[in-house]
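I have been asked to look over a protein record a colleague put together. This is what I was given:
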Amino acid sequence: MSQVNRENTGSQGGAKVAIQTFGRFLSGMVMPNIGAFIAWGLITALFIPTGWLPNESFASLVGPMITYLLPLLIGFTGGNMVHGTRGGVVGAVATMGVVVGSDIPMFLGAMLMGPLGGWLIKKFDKSIEGKIRSGFEMLVNNFSAGIIGGALALLAFKGIGPVIEAISKVLANGVEFLVNHNLIPLANILIEPAKVLFLNNAINHGVLGPIAMDQAVKTGQSLIFMLESNPGPGLGILLAYWLFGRGMVKQSAPGAVIIHFLGGIHEIYFPYILMKPVLLLAAIAGGVAGTFTFSLLGAGLVATPSPGSIIAYIAMTPKGGLLPMLAGVAVATVVSFLVAAAFLKGSKQTAEDDLDAATSKVQQMKAEAKGTAASAATAVEAPQGGAEKAVEDVKKIVFSCDAGMGSSAMGASILRKKLQKANVDVTVTNTAISEIPTDADIVITHKTLTARAKLKAPEAEHISIDDFLKSAEYDRLAERLSKN
């Protein structure tokens, strides 16, 4: 019996890792281009005929941006992830085939053709490595990229594009069926636990995002954008902890509310759920109630609200849609608050809840979701990384996380304020690990990511931390640099 259980656990873990890896790869293609999606969303919300400031001339940007710009950016990024700029160029050319060969925005096609183009040119480059006569390198490199990219574009135009379009229409019809039969709120039964387990990227960027963009083009908005990003469920849980929690958990909740609701960093509330896993029911109840309200009132957004902040929600709301949007967020908040409050008030635990342990667990789960758990041991053994830099040599400090947008941005902001108070004139920035600049003097990462950061910046001093929001390393570093 125990052997069977171990096998089931192993297979479940393997499936979880596979989904996480897939989601991580998809989000890697989308996240660097979120700014372009927001730009498209703002132009759409402002200038289409039903927008806030209708303008026929400016509105002419909407179609070309979603048809060509956004898929090509995804295709280039996917190819670049596989084989650098060369892979990105071939991936973009290949993506053009599915774009022209389809009548719908081809995001799924871009997510396929971009990496495929990068992989094929990578294999070709490896096969001819060391075999090109001197003086012919540029000729071979340029023509190989052109031939492979052109061939893939033709294949995508006639073969792959129509297939992807058919799949997209089937998925869109399925979502439309759920919406028409008021069943779409049931999706939150899966989405809310998936968020806490960092499994949401595969769902959000692989399926929901492309369908939502297609709907937004046709109707001017889509409720699908709001399924995973609704800040209401997390807000309700944090408010319940604020009122009914104890000790450090109660004291930390107000700050977490600001970071979550205004900053849009949803992972801030995951430790609060992991301290009491039963609160997943509060998140699910809030998500279902919020989505039902969105559906009932006809709410929707024009583009991806990233990060999932109420500010981003307001910016992406079409004209006349503020009240339905706010109502759905409010209902989700109230429902999750009431359910969470009931569990917290009825809790028999007398000791303070271990927020640090739950936060550490979240970081470990996040590391597993990003494929970095294996490097954690290396980082823990040598948390400070490279040799310590002399104070006078420290000109740039770089915070780095997997995407370079969430945790690292918060950490950089906190350290920047501490250095300003200490009158230390040092540049503090944040970036993705894959884009750590060569002139970084100190690189600060979560301990599970330090090994990867060392590979990107071997000459820099590396500092490992457990929590981007509160680390004693910030104070020690500020004190050290203030002695200059």
Notes: The CA atoms of residues 114 and 326 lie 37 Å apart. Residues 1-11, 373-385 have pLDDT under 50 and may be disordered. The longest helix spans residues 137-180. The chain has 20 helices and four strands.
